[in-house]
Automatic annotation (TrEMBL), chains A, B:
Name recorded for this polypeptide: (S)-2-haloacid dehalogenase
Gene3D superfamilies given in the database record: HAD superfamily/HAD-like, Putative phosphatase, domain 2
Entry similarity comment: Belongs to the HAD-like hydrolase superfamily. S-2-haloalkanoic acid dehalogenase family.
NCBIfam families per UniProt: HAD-SF-IA-v2, HAD_type_II
Source species, domain of life: Bacteria
EC number(s) given by UniProt: 3.8.1.2
UniProt organism field: Sphingomonas rubra
Claim: Hydrolase is one of the keywords in the record: yes
Pfam family, one: Hydrolase
InterPro entries in the record: 2-HAD, HAD-like_sf, HAD-SF_hydro_IA, HAD_sf, PGP-like_dom2, S-2-haloacid_dehalogenase
Record GO terms (molecular function): (S)-2-haloacid dehalogenase activity
Role played: Catalyzes the hydrolytic dehalogenation of small (S)-2-haloalkanoic acids to yield the corresponding (R)-2-hydroxyalkanoic acids.
Catalytic reactions of this protein: an (S)-2-haloacid + H2O = a (2R)-2-hydroxycarboxylate + a halide anion + H(+)
Swiss-Prot/TrEMBL keywords: Hydrolase
Amino acid sequence: MRDSPGVAVPRALAFDVFGTVVDWRAGVARESGQFLRAIGRAEVDAAVFADDWRARYQPAMAAVRDGARDFVVLDVLHREMLVDVLRAYDVDPGSLDGALLDDWARAWHRLDPWPDAVEGLARLRAHVPVVTLSNGNVALMLAIARRGGLVWDAILGAEVTQRYKPLPEAYTATAAILGVAPHELCLVAAHHSDLAAARDAGLLTAYVDRPMERGGAPAPDRHLRQSWEWQVTSLIDLAEQLHG
Amino acid sequence: MRDSPGVAVPRALAFDVFGTVVDWRAGVARESGQFLRAIGRAEVDAAVFADDWRARYQPAMAAVRDGARDFVVLDVLHREMLVDVLRAYDVDPGSLDGALLDDWARAWHRLDPWPDAVEGLARLRAHVPVVTLSNGNVALMLAIARRGGLVWDAILGAEVTQRYKPLPEAYTATAAILGVAPHELCLVAAHHSDLAAARDAGLLTAYVDRPMERGGAPAPDRHLRQSWEWQVTSLIDLAEQLHG
């Protein structure tokens, strides 16, 4: 449904990626299951391992967002988070081959799009530019896009702006790079927290419902739900609501 | 011809855009002809006007490259260069509407690809990532790409690295963003000066011959000609040489 009839159609669409465009949990679980078997830990539930890895995401970015640490790309944080989660599973990362850890950390490069994403993006891109506004770095976004056949007009986001969401500059600098005003850019995301920050920064907002992002578990940010400009069940639904 | 048989195939291709992928002179002349007529200066040779505008390109970037000026995107420099070239034609820019000047400066957004570019890029992109490594900013590259149907895996270059070519960091930072070593990245360009700087920074090099870039006039950097890893007559030729 379109919550706010009469609102202007965006001049460009910026997408959150993890959870919104790709199914991070299934991909990280699939990849981690292979590595867990390779290190003799086949009994670990790979989906829970994926959740535990992802749980370190916001804390890992906090030091960069707060300025306590210079900007580093998400690939670096993902590897640090992996080392940390392995320790929590009583695995000594120092006992593992460095190349294996590098490859495992790049599990995030090998995620698959949700079933509607390729077609939905293509239909949207026929009308307006579609760009990434993810905390993932360029090489990570590029690998996911090439793997899944996602076509972006540009890969923007944290590495380009040197700001992690939900800092307001992550959103406003992306609009400035595109040469549009914040209110002409729409963030498309499956997360109320991301959309709330984008709205505070002046962007339009489109919520995509992804009930299986956490395997059906409730979203931790559901208390931040608002009436977004658009609420859709898929990127194809968004294309139909925006451009008919 | 392939000058250095046995050299490794690049893991990614980074493209100069103005002159290499798009015909800047014809596009800027076509656009400027319309504006010159609109301001009552139809007698001016629009192709010469385009050359005079482009002649201010290297001087405009020099202050930024030298650190005398903070980084500003090429859209800003293009507008300043336009004001300067108009004065050289005895036009008072202050007498013109600001919106007209903005639109005229965006003539560079409305350039067309060389006839081989769309197909050549698509064929190359089937094998390796293709990205822009232009001094043009993201909005400028994005507009050109959408107009002409060019599909890039990422728009990199000056705005992303905050460095104008031919500074070495413009090339090495682009490789780092892509997660490849400099010697795994190949610059594709129609300009020996650009390729020479890329080679000095450790990149592979592919020269595309574009004899009509300056309407048939000799290239100002022809004295920098070297034996590049690849020398091609079109992007389709490059695809055939690289991937058969």
